[in-house]
Design a protein that fits this description.
Helices cover 24% and strands 23% of the residues. The chain starts with a helix and ends in a 5-residue tail after the last strand. It folds into two domains: 342 residues, TIM Barrel (Alpha-Beta Barrel); 106 residues, Sandwich (Immunoglobulin-like), CATH 2.60.40. Helix 4 packs parallel to helix 6 and helix 9 runs parallel beside helix 10. It is globular. A seven-stranded parallel β-sheet has the order 1-4-7-8-9-10-11. It is an alpha/beta fold. Strand 20 and strand 21 form a beta hairpin. The chain is built from ten helices and 21 strands.
Length: 482
């Protein structure tokens, strides 16, 4: 695992629940032993060793944590002392109709203490770097997956579980007070619940990040469409920019998207084999260059063709085929490009880090946006051509700016068609509100990344021999001709 993660360039691994659970097909999300590492994979010391080795190799560790529900097994928490000790007695509050499991009574101080102590336990004893909290939407909404009459409003007549909100605020306050910036908490939350990642002292819930579920659903829906019809769904890819700074977002392509008949990511893509892989490569460029942290489920980086099955290994033999090896190489290069180019992450959660250049070209299914670092000239331009046509495309840019192409998902080493993007013209004339324009050849079904060139300018003092007066001249160095 560790050499593979280092080679592919990922910064963290997130483990699905490793706490003890009785039912294999629950994948660990029905926990009975909240303080026990599951014996399926070894001893507690084995898990500690694994985490230590990941840390020695500068790889962070995030653990899935499930304070939202627990199963009714006799050896678990359900009716622990013969009464509803951990769960609500009222099934409208204490029973999950979807998962046939039981909901903690967050109004009891003893239950809150049990759960917050458990969070601290995994961060302190096992040195985890973060907790991803499962099913937060179900915790915060009294009417989650319930019909009218099947839930009881709160004291104000609303659907917010006030006790659960208070518990999550106390949980976040406790772990950040104990561990500071050394850890992060992440909420799996699919609604528009306000201020989820805002500080508790400002009325927020206090999470470090939130899964960007809307982005995930819109993106996958878009890439399932035939390119000829994508003009009708164009703004599924622009809509996220309307809310992407409301919270600190993580963009997830998780295990939930490749199970239960939903198909693997590669088979969600439209077209023949070449188009499927080209689409997925372009999707990854869009994902990696979009504001927000990134989460990719294992196997997605090389185009696993079958749905995930917890009973067996991934289909590593697929890497014998050029299209799968090429996709893996693309993800590796995107990871390393992301680490190298600070404009991708310096203003990750700030509006100063993003700007649309072209958001409305529905006819060509072209998207163009800038990512900006903290320094004025630290700027990247991302261009997505989401049709199978090669395009000659004109783009408005700032006066005096010059650009170089640093990445294309259509490169032959990624099993692309090998159409090389090329800036074949620069015009000093206004175009779409910009003082200058460039024209670029865009590969089909591809993402291209450009970097604003840095002009090395240095002042050189010179002597005018003729009149003996000192003057100043400017010496420019770089790839451009002056």
């Amino acid at each position: 695992l560790i050499p593979y993660i280092k080679e592919t360039g990922f910064t963290h691994v997130e483990f699905m629940p490793l706490m003890e659970y009785p039912y294999d097909p629950s994948w660990g999300y029905q926990i009975t032993g909240f303080y026990a590492a599951t014996s399926r994979f070894g001893s507690p010391q084995d898990l500690m060793f694994l985490i230590d080795e990941l840390h020695r190799n500068e790889i962070g560790v995030i653990l899935d944590w499930v304070p939202s529900h627990f199963p009714g097994d006799a050896n678990g928490l359900h009716r622990f002392d013969g009464s509803h000790l951990y769960e609500h007695e009222d099934p409208r509050k204490g029973f999950h109709p979807d998962w046939k499991s039981y909901i903690f009574n967050y109004g009891r101080n003893e239950v809150k203490s049990f759960l917050i102590s458990n969070a601290v336990f995994w961060l302190e004893r096992y040195h985890a770097d973060g907790l991803r909290v499962d099913a937060v939407t179900s915790m915060l909404h009294l009417d989650y997956s319930r019909n009218e009459g099947e839930w009881e409003p709160n004291i104000y007549g609303g659907n917010v579980n006030l006790e659960a909100k208070t518990f999550l605020q106390e949980f976040n306050t406790a772990v950040y007070k104990e561990f500071g910036d050394n850890i992060i908490t992440i909420a799996e939350e699919s609604s528009d619940f306000p201020k989820l990642t805002k500080p508790v002292h400002d009325g927020g819930v206090g999470f470090g990040m939130k899964w960007m579920m809307g982005w995930m659903h819109d993106t996958l829906a878009y890439f399932k469409e035939d390119p000829i019809d994508r003009k009708f769904f164009h703004h599924k890819l622009t809509f996220a920019s309307m809310y992407m700074y409301n919270e600190n977002y993580m963009m997830p392509l998780s295990h939930d998207e490749v199970v239960h008949g939903k198909a693997s990511l590669i088979y969600k893509m439209k077209g023949d084999e070449w188009q499927k892989f080209a689409n997925l490569r372009a999707l990854y460029v869009y994902m990696f260059t979009h504001p927000g942290a990134k989460l990719l489920f294992m196997g997605d980086e090389f185009g696993q063709t079958s749905e995930w099955n917890f009973k067996k290994s991934l289909d590593w033999h697929l890497l014998d085929y050029p299209v799968h090896k090429g996709l893996q190489t693309l993800v590796k290069d995107l990871n390393h490009l992301y680490r190298k180019e600070t404009a991708f992450y310096e203003n990750q959660f700030s509006p100063e880090g993003f700007e649309w250049v072209e958001a409305d070209d529905t006819d060509n299914s072209v998207y163009i946006y800038l990512r900006k670092g903290k320094k004025k000239d630290n700027v990247l331009m991302i261009i997505l051509n989401l049709t199978p046509r090669v395009l000659d495309y004109k783009i408005g840019v700032d006066a005096g700016s010059h650009w170089e192409i640093i990445f294309s998902s259509d490169d032959e080493k990624y099993a692309g068609s090998g159409v090389e993007p090329d800036i074949f013209r620069e015009d000093q004339e206004e175009y779409k509100g910009h003082k200058k324009s460039i024209s670029i050849k865009l590969p089909p079904l591809a993402g291209v990344v450009l970097r604003k060139k840095h002009m090395n300018v240095e002042k050189v003092k010179t002597i005018n021999i003729k009149d003996k007066k000192e003057s100043m001249s400017i010496k420019r160095s770089g790839n451009n001709k002056f």
